[in-house]
Specification:
The chain is an alpha+beta fold. Helices cover 25% and strands 27% of the residues.
Length: 416
């Protein structure tokens, strides 16, 4: 170990292998001898972003094949803290979109200032972004993947549980997780098809071919990180070991959005530079998002109360609305693009979204020692502002920085 390399300690378990979990694993592998990622979905090895987009089933990430915008701050974070991820994305066709050349001509931000060159969006699909993070995580010494598992709860030390049995005021110490292995999916996709629909709507193996009882396991850890996303069951897990449940604030966003993916088949439309288009006509929000490998997506958003516009889920209706907006229509002109999976490419729908923040500290102390939450498990926001992936990486960095300052004091790290 070099003089500048931090001492590597025991084991960290990360619940969830999405953006925040993968980013945390890459960073924490420098501090811990083993970082184990527990992920419900099984992601087969993918040779490219196209392969990941076409074949990864991410039932736990319903936004996996929706539009994403990767903000300028995220680009700077990748360059500074995850350079291998950025280089992998660049080599696989991700676009760098300078905001200074993407502004509409009617929007004048005044004279250029120092630092404007940092305002660069990253154009790629979420599948490509997750693929690059996963590739780097798999190459990182000490990172271990266990996929196809469902976390059922936390393990608290017996000493902390005995203390709680008395006055009920002690703070439990988390020392591991309990999980069970899920039965494998049937893998009945035809070659070359994209598993657009969630597992629940697809055929499963007959019950007789599954295990009679799932294998349940316990995994001990020095530190447990919840990166399981906006569907986190942390409140349930903490309550089961006698801890106070996290406080939560939640407000519905009131929006539906509809997304369809395409691939360029010819030159970009005349006058189209970056491929980033956004508009808001009050009753409808619309945007195009540039992607990696000559892909792009179009998203239309509307109020959850506008029931007639739910017909946008039908490809014919979606395409007709696109045709009514010239700046969108040029991307669907003859010879320019085609739906990424042919005519059967669906319009994906996302709704039931909320702004939510959860607090895992109370009266200046964490709810449990040895347990920290990051990413959407703590905070998620209206997706129309594109902050999700950026916040996921920033929370992983905040975790790493806190543990660097307080390597032996997880309570202090939690407060930091």
């Amino acid at each position: 170990m070099s003089g500048n390399e931090p001492e590597r300690r025991g084991r960290v378990v990360i619940i969830g292998g999405g953006i925040s979990g993968l980013a945390a694993a890459i960073l924490l592998a420098r501090r811990y001898r083993r970082v184990t990622i527990l992920e419900r979905d099984v992601r087969r090895p993918a040779a490219s972003p196209d392969d990941a987009f076409a074949h990864w089933e991410r039932a736990g990430v319903p936004q996996f094949r929706h539009s994403h915008v990767f903000l300028a701050r995220l680009f700077c974070v990748l360059r500074e803290r995850f350079p291998e991820v950025l280089e992998l994305l660049r080599s696989n066709g991700a676009l760098e979109v300078p905001l200074t050349v993407s502004l509409p001509p009617t929007l004048d931000l005044g004279p250029r200032e120092r630092g404007d060159g940092e305002l660069i969006l990253l154009g790629c699909r979420r599948a490509a972004f997750e693929w690059a993070l996963a590739e780097v995580a798999r190459r990182t010494r000490g990172v271990e993947f266990r996929e196809g598992v469902f976390v059922e709860g936390l393990v608290a030390s017996r000493r902390s549980r005995r203390a709680m049995d008395g006055k009920g005021a002690a703070r439990p110490r988390v020392v591991g997780v309990r999980f069970r292995e899920l039965p494998p999916s049937d893998g009945d996709d035809a070659p070359g098809t994209i598993p657009w629909y969630p597992r629940s709507s697809r055929r499963r193996r007959p019950a007789a071919s599954r295990e009679a009882s799932p294998r349940r396991r316990t995994l001990r850890a020095d530190l447990v990180i919840d990166a399981s996303g906006r569907r986190s069951r942390a409140g349930e897990w903490l309550a089961a070991i006698g801890a106070t449940a996290p406080r939560e604030r939640s407000v519905e966003t009131g929006i539906f959005y509809f997304t369809r993916f395409y691939r360029l088949t010819g030159p970009r439309p005349p006058g189209a530079t970056t491929g980033l288009v956004a508009g808001d006509v009050g009753w409808l929000k619309c945007a195009t998002f540039p992607g990696d490998g000559n892909t792009f997506s179009i998203t239309l958003g509307t109020s959850t109360e506008d029931r007639p516009l739910r017909a946008l889920a039908k490809p014919a209706v979606f395409e007709a609305v696109i045709a009514a907006f010239p700046q969108l229509a040029i991307w669907r002109a003859r010879g320019i693009s085609k739906p990424i999976d042919g005519a059967r490419t669906p319009v994906l729908v996302m709704g039931g979204l909320s702004n939510r923040a959860s607090s895992f500290v109370r009266q200046g102390k964490p709810l449990a020692d040895g347990f920290l939450a990051i990413g959407d498990a703590v905070y998620h926001t209206n997706p129309i502002y594109g902050r999700g992936a950026t916040c996921a990486l920033l929370s992983a960095i905040a975790l790493d920085d806190a543990l660097a300052r307080h390597p032996r004091d997880f309570a202090a790290a939690a407060m930091a």
